[in-house]
């Protein structure tokens, strides 16, 4: 069956709002290392890793062996009404890695569920339905997480279970404060935060939830230190800080294991998902014990933290720690940033290069007025695919190429990707 035939079947039974990449969508059927093969036999260097989920790459023996060992027991599922040894072991490891004192961990199935849980904890703990979120943010596709998403392209409904106010600062490239030095930029954003609290809320806000680097928003982030300065204001009002580490966790940003650590602050809670399971469905929250225990009603997660996903996740964390993939992310990220900035010197269409580690973005603009160029972005994404490289797309205006390869990326593969990107940019001329 061709991709075109499969696409027709997809359109007949899947929602119209379920977005697909490329003019002619592809099916990925095989993978090894950092490369994948589609249903028609074409092979690609994967620079989006299933939206940052295949953090280690494909066909990793240590992870596959851990899953096979669990499957060989005959137990794929028991539910959280029973003890699950791998779940406990994984929770102990994440609690320690979090840096949150006396941390507890709850497992779910996705980043959306993790963020929904964090909202439940914060609003229950503070007895308030008021929430602060960042402009240009994205936190998931459920009712509560859509409500705190500050990006019109992903905000499907104006209905909300919480009262949300949005704060300035995360997307610097098009901020009215973009030309300020870092220290002044941080000051005006902190002043804005205080003003939002004092003028648009009753003061007893539950939490501020933020992505250290905005994912769907185009891998945008403020200067290091902004969220540490935010925390000082939040503490004055007793407002909790939740870091959405769904895309930034596990060392992907290179310099730090968690993205929020760039701001020299320990949050009250962190949410996680994606890369933890290297493709297996798992997400969760790690939080201070008193915050985690705020829920007094009975609760559970049928599939969250099941024996299969926690076995895969434990093997994934052990692998990335043993191989020091955080250091590799820093090295390969620096190589890619240098290469992308070299391309930006040649092509004014590349308006901004940003990101950290193996979480990089290229924002495409029209050179005459610096306005977003979504058409050029779509063309470039197609051109890189035609040359054997898969990259993501995002940003508030759909004009950002997102690059987040597996953290096992090699120097030669980074060089190969840069050559493909430069060749693809040449098609804009």
From TrEMBL:
It comes from the Bacteria. It is an enzyme of class 2 (transferase). Keywords: Aminotransferase, Pyridoxal phosphate, Transferase. One of its GO terms (molecular function) is alanine-glyoxylate transaminase activity. Its cofactor is pyridoxal 5'-phosphate. InterPro entries: Aminotrans_3, PyrdxlP-dep_Trfase, PyrdxlP-dep_Trfase_major, PyrdxlP-dep_Trfase_small. Pfam families: Aminotran_3. CDD domains: OAT_like. Its EC number is 2.6.1.44. Belongs to the class-III pyridoxal-phosphate-dependent aminotransferase family. Homotetramer. This is alanine--glyoxylate transaminase. It comes from Kribbella sindirgiensis. The lineage of its organism: Bacteria, Bacillati, Actinomycetota, Actinomycetes, Propionibacteriales.
């Amino acid at each position: 069956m061709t991709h075109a035939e499969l696409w027709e079947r997809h359109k007949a039974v899947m929602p119209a709002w379920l977005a697909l990449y490329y003019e002619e969508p592809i099916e990925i059927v095989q993978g090894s290392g950092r490369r994948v093969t589609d249903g028609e036999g074409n092979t690609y260097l994967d620079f989006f890793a299933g939206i940052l989920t295949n953090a280690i790459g494909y066909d990793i023996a240590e992870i596959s062996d851990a899953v096979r060992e669990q499957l060989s027991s005959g137990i794929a599922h028991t539910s959280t009404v029973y003890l699950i040894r791998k779940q406990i072991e994984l929770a102990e490891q994440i609690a320690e890695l979090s840096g949150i004192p006396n941390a507890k961990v709850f497992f779910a199935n996705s980043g959306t569920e993790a963020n929904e849980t964090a909202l439940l904890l914060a609003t229950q703990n503070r007895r308030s339905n008021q929430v602060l979120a960042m402009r240009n943010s994205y936190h998931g596709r459920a009712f509560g997480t859509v409500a705190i998403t500050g990006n019109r392209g992903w905000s499907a409904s104006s209905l909300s279970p919480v009262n949300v106010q949005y704060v300035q600062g995360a997307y610097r490239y098009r901020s009215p404060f973009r030309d300020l030095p870092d220290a002044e930029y941080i000051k005006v954003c902190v002043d804005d935060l205080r003003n939002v609290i004092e003028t648009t809320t009753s003061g007893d806000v539950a939490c501020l939830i933020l992505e250290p680097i905005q994912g769907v928003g185009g891998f945008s982030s403020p200067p290091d230190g902004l969220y540490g300065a935010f925390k000082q204001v939040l503490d004055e009002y007793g407002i909790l800080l939740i870091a959405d580490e769904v895309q930034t966790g596990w060392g992907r940003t290179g310099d730090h294991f968690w993205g929020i650590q760039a701001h020299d602050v320990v949050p009250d809670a962190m949410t996680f998902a994606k890369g933890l399971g290297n493709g297996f469905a798992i997400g969760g929250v790690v939080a201070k014990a008193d915050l985690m225990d705020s829920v007094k009603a009975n609760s559970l997660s049928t599939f969250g933290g099941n024996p299969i996903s926690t076995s895969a996740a434990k093997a994934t964390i052990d692998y990335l720690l043993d191989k020091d993939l955080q250091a590799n992310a820093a090295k390969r990220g620096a190589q890619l940033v240098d290469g992308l900035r070299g391309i930006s010197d040649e092509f004014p269409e590349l308006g901004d290069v940003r990101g950290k580690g193996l979480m990089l973005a290229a924002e495409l603009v029209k050179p005459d007025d610096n306005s977003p160029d979504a058409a050029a972005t779509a063309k470039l994404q197609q051109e890189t695919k035609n040359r054997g490289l898969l990259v993501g797309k995002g940003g508030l205006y759909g004009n950002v190429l997102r690059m987040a390869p597996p953290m096992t990326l090699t120097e030669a593969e980074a060089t190969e990707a840069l050559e493909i990107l430069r060749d693809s940019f040449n098609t804009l001329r």
